[in-house]
Amino acid sequence: MPESKSKFLIPVVGAAVVVVGSIAAYMYLKGPSGGSSDALGSAKLVPSTALMATYITTDSQAWAKLQQFGTPEAQKLVAKSLEDLNKQMFSDGNVSYEKDIKPWVGGVMIAVLPPNSVKPAQFNVPSGTPNAPTNLQQESNILIVVGIKDKLSALNFANKLKSQKGAKFQESDYQGQKIIETTENGKPTTYSVVLNNSHLVLAPEKQAVEKAIDTFKGQSSFASKEGASSILSKGVDVKNSLAQIYVPDYAGMVQQLTAGNPQAKQLPPQALAQLKLIKSLVAGVGVDDAGVRVKAIANLDPQLNKFQYQSSPGNIVGQFPADTFALISGNGISRGWETLVEQSKDYPEMKQALEQARGQLKFVNIDLDKDIFGWMNGEFAFGAIPSNQGVLASVGFGGALVFDTSDRKTAEATLTKLDTLAKAQQISVANRMIGGKDVTEWQIPKQGALLAHGWLDQDTVFVALGGPVADAISDRKNSSLDNSEAFKAVTSSLQKPNGGYFYLDIDKTKTVPLVNSLISSDPNTITILNSIRGLGFTANSPDKSTSELEMLLALKPSVK
Q1: Residue 509 and residue 526: Cα distance in Å, rounded?
Q2: What confidence score (pLDDT) does residue 560 get?
Q3: What is the mean pLDDT of residues 312-320?
């Protein structure tokens, strides 16, 4: 949506609510507002052609839950941002969200309708100009439905806005409903209507409001759309829900948005077929005692789902030291590789890239499928570990890859081939005992080990970047990552079983020199980061028809 139209919501609210303002309606306005602030009720006013919809709750209890988190500095920063937003919306300072808007606004649904046809932007071309270029632009198509939970407060606010300078209102009729066309201080026109005295409908395009009226009059709605009704009624189970997102036809949404954007590259048939793997998607954002939690459920087509999901035991996390500040874990890289190779048959460019990679590795006697990915059939994890020694001194951290495998023979043969290649490049390759384990290191004069690899047990091999990281993995003298309080705080409440974790410890990440140099110049960024413990993400697939994702932004409790 163009920026000039993206700020139409608040100023136009009052103009539309004026429609319900008459003396005869006063007694009715004092009555209860009914179920105007639920997602299903709002969806009944959204045309069935909508590609997706987001429902944002205005329940003060849910949003107040956020106040239990954050440092005093962060809370002051957020309060200042909200104050600045209020001043930006209402430059004369006579309107307050807390006093004038919050009392009557119920839930808000934002729906994305199919893009309008692309049309030439308005411009003047001198007559007789040959082959004048046409400047095309895509018209925004957003529809917003606002629940009215207190009609009297809404009317009072409408009258307050109506009396302000700079606002112009023009009324028109469509199917017996009054559409208000609003222009404020020369800003682009916006359109709004109040339906059933319970919902305010707004859009930057008149056609979108007319379609909402058609829906109100009986045409099919988003609530009755195939694929939408079930996800609207179920939603996603998150505590203190702040928002729910509904996508009833994922492939159709992507296809229509891409087709309506002249700058976007059109999707090839193979990509469209792949998109159809996801039938529908619903996501929810909520707040609980750990922080802000996001859950998403994708309804998949089992006939198109070729990936054989397998849950991860999670044992490999215990191979990393407690000071590991970032981790990605999973299970079965070899199965994922096989799926990718199978899918590449339908994508000429991908297939060509794979063949090139295979050919280049053959020159050094390495089989990409067998020697690299074939033996990676168990759990795996990549972790970032702090270190300020040797080759890692300038960046402040190194990395380690750990694999469980049932094919140790092939893995050892691959590592031997890599050692031979390193020697050919005049890199010193030597063995060193670390914590009773035989570790092979690629050493650089005066810098120590650049890379190291070895076996932690019969089935677990590691490859580390930097000698100090090899020490930390091979000879752990302190507790492991899975027993650390930071890791537990971020991941213990995530769904289990799962396919693995993405984990990030914000406190430890901030101390890494490379990261610190990037954020130290922005005090606001540091203030916000000081309120975050970490970020955790995981995924699960209980069957071939369902994929579940969960993310937790773990926040620090506020200090009174």
Answers
A1: 12
A2: 62
A3: 93
Alpha helices in 425-478 (DSSP H): 467-474
Q: Which residues pair with 168 in a beta bridge?
A: 183
- Taking a C-beta distance cutoff of 8 angstroms, is the pair 14, 101 a contact? no
128 CB-contact burial (10 Å; exposed 0-12 / middle 13-18 / buried 19+): exposed
For 461, the token pair is 């091999």
Tell me if 279 sits within 8 A of 304, measured CB to CB: no
The whole-angstrom separation of Cα 360 and Cα 339 is: 22
Asked if residues 391 and 309 have their Cβ atoms less than 8 Å apart, the reply is no
Would you give the distance in Å from CA 98 to the centre of its chain? 29
Q: Where are the alpha helices (DSSP H) in 387-505?
A: 408-424, 467-474, 485-491
pTM (predicted TM-score): 0.85
Structure tokens belonging to residue 3: 């920026």
Using an 8 Å Cβ cutoff, are 299 and 546 in contact? yes
Contact 146, 174 (CB under 8 A): no
Three-state SS sequence of 188-200: CCEEEEEECCCEE
In our burial notation (b when 16+ CB lie closer than 10 A, e otherwise), range 149-183 reads bbbebbbbbbeebeeeeebebeeeeeeebebbbbb
Helix locations, 106-150, DSSP H? none
Rounded Cα distance, 522 and 450, in Å: 33
According to DSSP, residue 222 is labeled G
Q: Enumerate residues 6+ apart whose C-beta is below 8 A from 422.
A: 429, 442
Banded model confidence at residue 91, pLDDT cuts 50, 70, 90: low
Tell me which residue of 541, 480, 481 sits closest to 331, measured CA to CA. Answer: 541
**Is the per-residue pLDDT at 213 higher than 80?**
yes
Exposed, middle or buried by CB within 10 Å (0-12, 13-18, 19+), for 143?
A: buried
State whether residue 444 is helix, strand or coil: strand
What's the rounded Cα separation, in Å, for the pair 369 and 379? 18
Cα-only R_g, the chain? 29
Rounded to an integer, what distance in angstroms lies between the CA atom of residue 397 and that of residue 391?
A: 10
pLDDT computed for residue 263 by the predictor:
66
Phi, psi angle pair for 291, to nearest 5°: 150, -150
Handedness of CA 488, 493, 496, 500 (dihedral sign): negative
Please, are residues 389 and 468 in contact by the beta-carbon 8 Å criterion?
Answer: yes
How do residues 265-277 score in pLDDT, each as one tens digit?
777 777 777 788 8
Calpha distance 361→498 (Å, rounded): 34
Supply the mean pLDDT for the chain: 83
Task: Compute how many other C-beta atoms are within 10 angstroms of the C-beta atom of residue 33.
Answer: 18
Q: Which of 26-35, 71-80, 134-143, 435-444 ranks highest by mean pLDDT?
A: 435-444
Rounded CA separation 271/348 (Å): 12
Distance CA 18, CA 124 (A): 38
